Amino acid sequence: MSASPFQTILACVSSKSALIGCLASFSGASAYAIICGVLFACGMGLPIPEDITIIASGILAALGKISIWGAFVVCMVGVLAGDGLLFFLGRKLGDNAFNLPIIRKIMTEKRKKLAKEKVLNNSKFICFVARFLPGLRAPTYLTAGAMGVKPSTFILLDGFAALISVPVWIYVGWFIGDKWDESMAIIKKMHMAIIIGIVILAVGYFFVKRYLNNKKAN
After folding, report:
1. What count of Cα atoms within 13 Å lies in the side-chain half-sphere of residue 101?
2. Predicted model pTM
3. Which of 31, 88, 104, 112 is the most exposed place for a label (fewest CB within 10 A)?
């Protein structure tokens, strides 16, 4: 029995270049379905790099296997559906969300109390930045939902972040095209630029917030 597309993709997860090659082997309707499905699974915590999947969609568009606008639409749908399901699952479960295996191991009662305070006080910043943090995205959105972050805040900030990250990674894939030998070097540079940008944004956010709080106190 031949392996399913998802089994084939999971077999390539250990190597980013192999994963790109695997995803870029699809075309047409099957490519749209695979990209959307994989991104939804990424949002639910499946260990497949979301950025690599979006880059692969850009490569497919560059190779003429799908349209560039089709790549954008399916990527946005897959990304936001996965994020939204986790967030609203957290809202439905409330504190019971912290009994889930992925959360229970790291969230003690003390950490839960501290997290609730920090998430609610910085909900806008957290909902925006989490989109750029692979590995932390799923537990962050689940926690935000459980902590009572407003749905409107989550949808607006996560959607805004996706409107930045998705086109950027699609363009990276479009730029790479069939230049497979250069792909990993380009992706590493982009990851480094994103990390530096997030650090600068975080430092700026907390300095501005401290300044405004001090000004209000005086």
Report:
1. 1
2. 0.76
3. 104
